[in-house]
Design goal:
The chain is of the alpha/beta class. The protein has four domains: 72 residues, Alpha-Beta Plaits (2-Layer Sandwich); 260 residues, Peptidase S8/S53 domain (Rossmann fold); 135 residues, Glucose Oxidase, domain 1 (3-Layer(bba) Sandwich); 103 residues, Immunoglobulin-like (Sandwich). The protein is built from 19 helices and 39 strands. The protein has a seven-stranded parallel beta sheet with strand order 7-10-6-13-15-16-27, sandwiched between helices. A seven-stranded mixed beta sheet has the order 19-18-24-20-21-22-23, sandwiched between helices. Strand 20, helix 11 and strand 21 form a beta-alpha-beta unit.
Amino acid sequence: MDFCKARWRAPSLCLVIVLLQASLSACAPTTNTYIVQMAKSEMPSSFDFYHEWYASTVKSVSSSQLEDEEEDDASTRIVYNYETAFHGFAARLDDDEADMMAEADGVLAVIPETVLQLHTTRSPDFLGIGPEVSNRIWSDSLADHDVVVGVLDTGIWPESPSFSDKGLGPVPAKWKGLCQTGRGFTSANCNRKIVGARIFYSGYEASSGPINETTELKSPRDQDGHGTHTAATAAGSPVQDANLFGYAGGVARGMAPRARVAAYKVCWAGGCFSSDILAAVDRAVSDGVDVLSISLGGGASRYYLDSLSIASFGAMQMGVFVACSAGNAGPDPISLTNLSPWITTVGASTMDRDFPATVTLGNGANITGVSLYKGLRNLSPQEQYPVVYLGGNSSMPDPRSLCLEGTLQPHDVSGKIVICDRGISPRVQKGQVVKEAGGIGMILANTAANGEELVADSHLLPAVAVGESEGIAAKSYSKSAAKPTATLSFGGTKLGIRPSPVVAAFSSRGPNILTLEILKPDVVAPGVNILAAWSGDASPSSLPSDSRRVGFNILSGTSMSCPHVAGVAALIKASHPDWSPAQIKSALMTTAYVHDNTYRPMKDAATGKASKPFEHGAGHIHPVRALTPGLVYDISQADYLEFLCTQRMTPMQLKTFTKNSNMTCRHTFSSASDLNYPAISVVFADQPSKAMTVRRTVTNVGPPSSTYQVKVTKFKGADVVVEPNILHFATTNQKLSYKVTLTTKAAQKAPEFGALSWSDGVHVVRSPVVLTWLPPQ
């Protein structure tokens, strides 16, 4: 008898029934959450509502154990219904049911649940958008152009002064969102600044079980800090005398301080689940957000299998600009996430501010690093203290050299400064391990994976982070000296750092593994040592043992760079309310710069050499120029669909974006390079000597009568001809097209990088150009 399929009906002893129930439970197929996209137009006329159709579809694929379930029981397996940016539902299904669901009528795609991770003051001034600029943009004449920035993250800490609504007018009449209440969060926590707050956890609970409400608040309140930090970076109100332990003191304000904030809490202790993220995007678009900031990401999936890609496509269709973080998997190549062309993918760079600290070795050598340490356990700069490094000479990492939990013994480190290699465990946690073992200080040494990039942390004991070469010098000294000693000193905040900006080593890099013809990341923005508001429930180090509480914290990651771009997009939207998401993105990309404050090419922290478009995209954002870009490259929904037609999708896969079954490919693009993207990336394959032509159309958003001339880089591997080479505009919003013909001269082993720029003497509209030669098959 197959207990996994049998239904026990005969009366029996209670013990036998209990055992059989246990057997049935053990044999039952494992269910997982799947996101099911439906063709909205194909709902049978027998249903009045979409949720009825969805429940019936779930029932139709239910396994034999569930064949008797009623419609209401089938609907309980549905986790979410989606209806705005995405049409369909999320449901608990076993593998067999998921396979049958993919073949069911009206089903476009069945996507497994995935878990995404968070990509975790001075920046407005560094970007040139001080109070005078932002006040000019948010003038009274633009009062009816209220912009709402939706932030998908860990929630929000409403008591932060960064979310004061002082000076703001009424909540925009167009706004349809609400303030969802829960433990620790009431309707009074929303105001004219925080106009909406919602939570999404059904997908999380369906996969991981109920949230532990004794330790986690099932409300929009942020217990982590990440969401508060990103929301304040995008649109925080000005706060005087903001600082972290005296570091980075000044006025903290977001990129768009007059914009409204809507917080969508999608991340919990166990991660951020794709069905919850999709539900949040769907709801945010319905609520009426203008901009979405999503500092989350997972691996790179095909466009039609990426729920965030599909949802952001729906958001784009509704006129919503979507900014996403590029990821923190650098400096490895091909490490990007959020690759869709309708998403603005943001990498991270440094600012001209630093927090210097010094290691003085017993031999008199001074090693420069960074730190945010501020505590009572200071070391005297006039004294020397024993220093130790427990790593060996082997190429294999030693757990003791990494200062992992449980690896340090008091007899080795008590009373000493310990050199710890960066990696495996969080940076601040290494200092906690040293402190618990009796160490009095830490030198945190970068390895080859991090190079010379320095990231400051609010350590729990005196600690200085140093680059790879300086770390090697400190370790060599500690091993060679008879009685090695050192001391640590801290220099506070320093401005005017040169060179800056520099692309962060951790920032994920291209090329775009899905489509080489679409350059990613799109831009870089400040993402290293960013000061912004923080949760009152979280310590600055995020370690449970850290009892410190702060109003502002300093973090690094593409999670920090993403809301910079989202906030600047809000500024542009306020100034140009009729611009499409593609036009806003174009303005950001074509006005970006690629030189640092020493007037040399922007560097890559991972190598110390000039960065390339695979690291910085179009370059570093320049918000003031982006407000008046001169020309923009617009992309319509139909253009994006033609792009997707070049991606070798089946008709069913294409329907995940077309949704309407009667939309078909017109094949107007010869390749993905023909998408009217603000960057040009051409791939030479098969016949490398064959000439290739790409076409672009620009829209005049500057003076009505203007003339632009083109300038293009000379390449080693190809001749480039632009026709016409002069564009004459007579009216605003006039569109003119040009074509770029590329003919290979000598195939190159590595990609070549350059630029194509149009200038009228005032505006420079610059597009990066990437030429890639694929080896013969």
